[in-house]
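pinned: reference chain
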Amino acid sequence: MKFNCSVESFYSSLSAVSHALSTKGSLPVLSYILLEASGKSLSLSATNLELAITTVIEAEIEKEGSVCAPGKLLTDLASSLPSGEIKVSVKDNILDVESQNVKSKLNGIASTEFPKLALGTKEEFLSLDPAQFCKSLPSVIFSAATDESRPVLTGVLFDVTEDVLTLVGVDGFRLSERKLKLTQKADKHIHVGIPARPLSEIGRLISGEGSLKVFLDDGENQIIFRTERFEISSRLIEGAFPDYRKIIPASFISRASVPAEEFRKSVKLASLFAKDSSNVIKITLSPSESLFTLGANTPEIGENDTKISARIEGEGLNVAFNNRYLSDCLSNITDTEIIFQASGELSPGLFTSSKDENFLHIIMPVRVQE
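pinned: its structure tokens
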């Protein structure tokens, strides 16, 4: 195997696929990047068995072949090379790397050791706008569970019904739902869970791409995202995603329209006084005074109350929420006004945007003893 290509292109591709390298060391080959030289191109792939990334770059191929190269070492080496051309030759799985006055030798392993990757060879079932899709991901991924005790909740629901893609993240204490209107109807209904961590990497990689095609492999246990530069596959989460719609309240007794920036600042301020008090922030709705009040009280520190003028409809209300959940929610609503609705102090709180009907967030309340 022998090829030449630009250092910049080689390093950029290595950096991209290295996001799929394993850091746990369960299988040594998972810390390696597969290099495959064929025709007029060089393919680079990496996988941790949950996420796999492949990209192809132009190269001058003098001798076709393949090898697994140590991922981090090769990426770090490429980042330190001067601009220009890099020459790589492989014999007996040893890589000789040359660039201007730099010569390096790396110990690789046989390409046959590398896991077989899922490929988008079947007909696509969905076409997405990469920018719209990637912009939507953070607003649901943050709600996915990080506790592995309930694996199905560590993923994001990817639900396609006709011309709507619904993304949902839920961890048992909060829930985010984002709906995307598709420009064309999907070929079939899809209802799968995608691990949140791989989905985050996918979003970072494809955000600047011009097109995005989505496939499922034959066994439908992996989903594949293909762009002009990348082919990225993720395993699907086993088990049925919970029926999250049962959590969404159907009616409310209290509703408040609150200026978003004041809401965010007030939560940040109240959080200073909630650190040693189970991280609880209390919200009080006063319809007669048109006031939305946030407060926190920790005897060892002190207390804080901030009143915000707001449009209040329905009954008065006292309810408490975890301050981190509130902060996360508000940072993912970019509108100038936030709508808060609830049906009692022990009922879920619904947070939406006044202008974006395609996003909603629910936080379960905290029981507070007076």
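why pinned: The mean pLDDT is 92. The helical segments are 7-17, 71-80, 130-136, 138-141, 196-206, 260-271, 323-331.
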